[in-house]
Specification:
AAA+_ATPase, AAA_14
Length: about 425
């Protein structure tokens, strides 16, 4: 416990922390402001959850808080709820019997962590304290894990395109706009046309680097420096959940081979050595809960058809590159892949901002890439035409075409992504 909290001995030792040193050395420097609430922070590995916790601790120390009132513990070494309860009991009896700040990192792999945490809340261990806990999986969040909601659940995703542009290029003075009002969204988008060349250049960079902080502060291709880090983090999580790497790898390779196309669990099972569509379904759900994949299901009116074919994308373009190298041995992007990766980026941005995002297709093979409420979004990347969208309302996204016809708008992808995305770092849809 002492080893993980060196500021108990000397408060200035917070600045010796590796994550803190890295953050303070960055240019531009980006530090997420602390949230004054009890939080359960989940998100993919390497997205910056631990760094956020450490900078929050730095912020608290700089306000002259007594250092022993701040507990940080990485829960990787804890087996179950009893270990968790024992940890807090020791802290309260030996270090700080009073209120304070408790930060428990990577708690969601601890067996029955939610039961242990609820016991600690009910037992008064967190009375008058601020509590942050973090994790890399939402598996247990499908059901209510903490009755009474002592923690607010939030997701920390990789940067969306708007935040990527604001941080690493320049911030544009325009508000986020709702895509549900096509004419207003189009009129707002027109204001960004003078920045189109720079937005497109940034989108190509985002395509290569993605939204992870670490990949955006080095020169050259980030895959060379971070492939092993991100790959090993994902495989470590699979091992903790006792899943077979071979099955995961075959599924991921099949997804890459069919990227942007509709695919089913049966297809994956038959075209790999896995055999069982139920096994494929289990691994797909797990990969989605580990924030590796985003799965879009067919929309039929206002209903989701969970049994139909699915469209599956990685939640960040850098994860695509990592998984391509993992399964294919090479992570460079070919020209023919770019439209499909752009499509996945659009889908991910829509899913973060709107509920019930899916896709649809009609008899005869007519497909709409994404459906949000009563409108469609068709991603063309190259040239676009109003006839490309098979319903009466929505957007056709291209490289640089612009136009409007009734309730259909043709817009550049980069402008669309920038305008639809919020500038908030946390999302609360769980």
């Amino acid at each position: 416990m002492n080893f993980q909290n060196p500021w108990w001995i000397d408060k200035n030792r917070i600045y010796d922390d590796e994550q803190i040193k890295k953050v303070l050395s960055l240019n531009p420097r980006f530090i997420i402001s602390p949230l004054n609430d009890n939080l359960l922070i989940i998100g993919p590995r390497q997205v910056g959850k631990t760094t956020f916790i450490k900078t929050t601790i730095m912020n608290i120390i700089e306000k002259n808080t007594e250092p022993t009132k701040i507990l940080f513990f990485s829960c990787d070494s804890l087996k179950d709820k009893d270990d968790l309860i024992s940890l807090l009991s020791q802290y309260r009896s030996l270090i700080n019997p009073d209120n304070g700040f408790v930060f428990l990192d990577e708690i969601t792999f601890v067996k029955d962590w939610n039961i242990g945490l609820l016991h600690l809340f009910n037992g008064g261990y967190f009375k008058n304290s601020m509590v942050y806990v973090s994790g890399s999986t939402s598996v247990s969040l499908k059901k209510e894990t903490l009755p009474g909601r002592p923690l607010n659940k939030v997701i920390l995703y990789p940067l969306n395109f708007r935040m990527f542009f604001d941080i690493y290029f320049k911030k544009l003075n325009v508000n986020t706009s709702s895509i549900l009002d096509v004419k207003k969204f189009y009129n707002d988008a027109i204001k960004l046309v003078p920045y189109l060349a720079e937005l497109n250049r940034a989108l190509l960079e985002y395509l290569k680097r993605g939204g992870f902080f670490a990949t955006n502060y080095i020169k050259g291709d980030p895959l060379a420096s971070f492939y092993e880090t991100y790959k090993d983090a994902i495989l470590s999580d699979l091992a903790k959940l006792r899943k077979e790497e071979r099955i995961f790898r075959e599924i991921i390779e099949k997804i890459i081979d069919s990227y942007g196309s509709r695919i089913s669990e049966n297809t994956i099972a038959k075209e790999t050595s896995i055999g069982s569509h139920n096994t494929v379904s289990t691994y797909l759900d797990l990969a989605e809960n580990l924030f590796i994949l985003r799965i879009f299901r067919k929309m039929e009116g206002n209903k989701i058809n969970n049994k139909s074919f699915k469209k599956i994308y990685f939640i960040d373009p850098f994860i695509y590159r990592v998984m391509k190298r993992y399964t294919k041995g090479l992570g460079t992007l070919e020209e023919k892949e770019i439209p499909h990766i752009i499509e996945g980026i659009v889908g991910e941005h829509l899913a973060r901002e709107y509920e019930r995002v899916g896709y649809t297709f009609f008899k005869g093979g007519k497909e709409i890439d994404f459906i949000v409420e009563n409108l469609g979004v068709e991603v063309k990347w190259g040239r676009g035409d109003f006839r490309d969208l098979k319903i009466d309302k929505g957007y056709i996204l291209t490289l640089d075409d612009i136009g409007i016809n009734g309730e259909k708008a043709i817009l550049p992808v980069s402008i669309f992504l920038y305008l639809l995305s919020s500038s908030k770092i946390f999302y609360t849809k769980i």
